[in-house]
Amino acid sequence: EAQVTQNPRYLITVTGKKLTVTCSQNMNHEYMSWYRQDPGLGLRQIYYSMNVEVTDKGDVPEGYKVSRKEKRNFPLILESPSPNQTSLYFCASRGGGLAEYEQYFGPGTRLTVT
Amino acid sequence: SQQGEEDPQALSIQEGENATMNCSYKTSINNLQWYRQNSGRGLVHLILIRSNEREKHSGRLRVTLDTSKKSSSLLITASRAADTASYFCATAHNAGGTSYGKLTFGQGTILTVHP
To answer: Which of A28, A52, B56, B74 keeps 20 to 30 A from A16, CA to CA?
Structure first.
């Protein structure tokens, strides 16, 4: 089954404790991205990757890091989480060279930073 | 600022009625997509309409695009309680530059269909 998986689905952590949210897709997609969703703000792109070893900032990259060492995986790293990073996070992927294709979304990771 | 903005923010209807949601955007696009999100879950792609298309259908969904007005509408006909969800439009920019391949989402319309 074609899918995007994220882990963990729920995470409660404390300020400053490094964490990684994993994302994996089994569709051989080149393009992957991370979004955060906050009430009243919709979805905002954090980082995206057009292929292995090619990543770039989205709209709200501060406080986040990503890496793309393999085509299927695109982890999101919070080196020193802060309460304002409490949010619902989605990983997404799509194929194709241009933005002409639908994005497939993971189930989401609900992060709470206290 | 947000590229796509939906209207209304919330819509409440009875089963069997039609639901219409609108989306406006600011700059030129490659295509516009509509997604659905059930509460707290991932988004699911519904339909994509390219900038050179004016109307598209998929089952009970009808999407229109007016590039001169920079607006789109999503019509769900004969709604069902199972259509209750949030609906987002997302605009895809033309290739090139920092906007390459990016989807910009609006804040969504919350649709409630009462049985």
So the answer is: A52
Q: What is the pLDDT of residues A86-105, one digit of tens each?
A: 999 999 998 865 556 788 99
Q: A106 and A90 in contact (C-beta within 8 Å)? A: yes
User: Which amino acid, B13?
Assistant: I
User: Hey, what's the torsion of the CAs at A100, B37, A78, A81, to 10 degrees?
Assistant: 150
Assigned token pair, B20: 């219409």
Average pLDDT for runs of 10 along chain B of length 115: 74 97 91 92 93 96 97 97 96 63 86 96
Residues of B in contact with A88 (CB under 8 A): 40
Q: How far apart are CA A87 and CA B47, in angstroms?
A: 27
Give dist(CA A98, CA B1) in Å, integer.
23
Q: Which of A24, A18, A5, A35 is nearest to A74 (CA)?
A: A24
Q: Tell which phi-psi region holds residue A85, choosing left (phi > 0), alpha (psi between -120 and 50) or beta.
A: alpha
- For B42, what's the count of Cα atoms within 13 Å in the CB-facing half-sphere? 19
Tens-place pLDDT, residues A15-49? 999 999 999 999 999 899 999 999 888 899 999 99
Report which DSSP code applies to A73.
Answer: B
The closest CB to that of A31, out of B93, B101, B105, belongs to B101
